[in-house]
Structures are given as C-alpha cells and as structure tokens.
Amino acid sequence: MRIFLDLHIHTNSSPDSTITLNQLISELFRAGISAIAITDHETMEGYKRIKNSAFFKEILVIPGIEITTTLGDIIILGLENPPIIKDPFILLDEVKKEGGFILAPHPFDNKRKSLGNLCAKLRVDFIEVYNGRSDAKANKEAREFAIALKMKMVGGSDAHRKEEIGSVINVLECEKNIDDIFSNLMKGCKIIVKKK
CATH says 2-193 is which class? Predict the structure, then answer.
C-alpha cells in the first residue's frame, strides 16, 4: 500500500499555529495524505483531540511533540505520553528507553532553534532534510549533512497554516500502521516537495 505521510504538522494547540481540526481534515483529503504526525509545541493536546475525533478515522495519526530543548528543537514521535525534558541528552535517553523516535526538525535553519551539527552527537533517528518553512539553503545544508553522515532523511511541511499542509510529503510502500511506517522510514523514503 502506498502511504503519503507528513511527519510535522501543528494544530491550533500550538500557540503559533492557526490550523483547526476542520481545516486539517479538509486539507489532508485535498492533498491525498493518508498518515500524519501531530507535533504541537510542548503539548499533546492537538494529538489527543484528533485521536478522539471520528473525522480522522481514515487517517493514521502518529503521536508527536516538538520540544524546545536547551540546544534546539527536537521532535519526539511514537509515544502517547512522551517525556518533556529540556536537557536533550536526558530527553533522548528517556525517549529511547520508551521506544520512541527522535527527529531533528529544520536542523540548519538559523532563524529558529535548531540542532545543527549536534544531530550527529545526539544520534537522532531522522533528519528533516526538507522543511516546508525553511529556505532552500537550510534544506540543502541538512541534506548534505545527512548524506555525509549516512543519516535517515525525511521531510515535513511544518504546517502552521492550512495552506502549508501537504507542501512536503514522505512516500512509503508499506502497511498503514505505525510499526510498519517506522520500520520503512528507517530503510528510507521518497520525499515530495511541492513548489511554493
């Protein structure tokens, strides 16, 4: 089965996002997206609202959260109750113990709190090499870094407004469940970036 996945979406549970649940479901269907990770800032509230909504029964919703650590932003994926810890080394140890995955969002975007070269030292699972809100230079630097260090590459729209949903999509051939998706992401995926 072909899965179209966006690993980085914010709802209006994030203070800087305006995306309502109605807007989200409508844009997901328009863009043909079949799986998403909700990655609100410092909260699981958006994920919980979507998880309990009948409107999203056709969409696979992966639990996620974007945490601003002392060294930069980190996305935790796959945990219903992730630890929220500001020290990235302690955070990543806890996430690994609990079986979650770590994604470095917009790693070389100097306009935001990003990990940069620390991605390697922290041993993140995935590097976001295409971020829908980063400029071409930051995305290129992320891709080159990931290729040089043989790190797993993914993309994410980083949608904060409904128009941004679907700007970056990961394409996988797998079953529509979380375990299969992560297993296939670890092997690599095709990333589609739609022109702005």
Answer: alpha beta
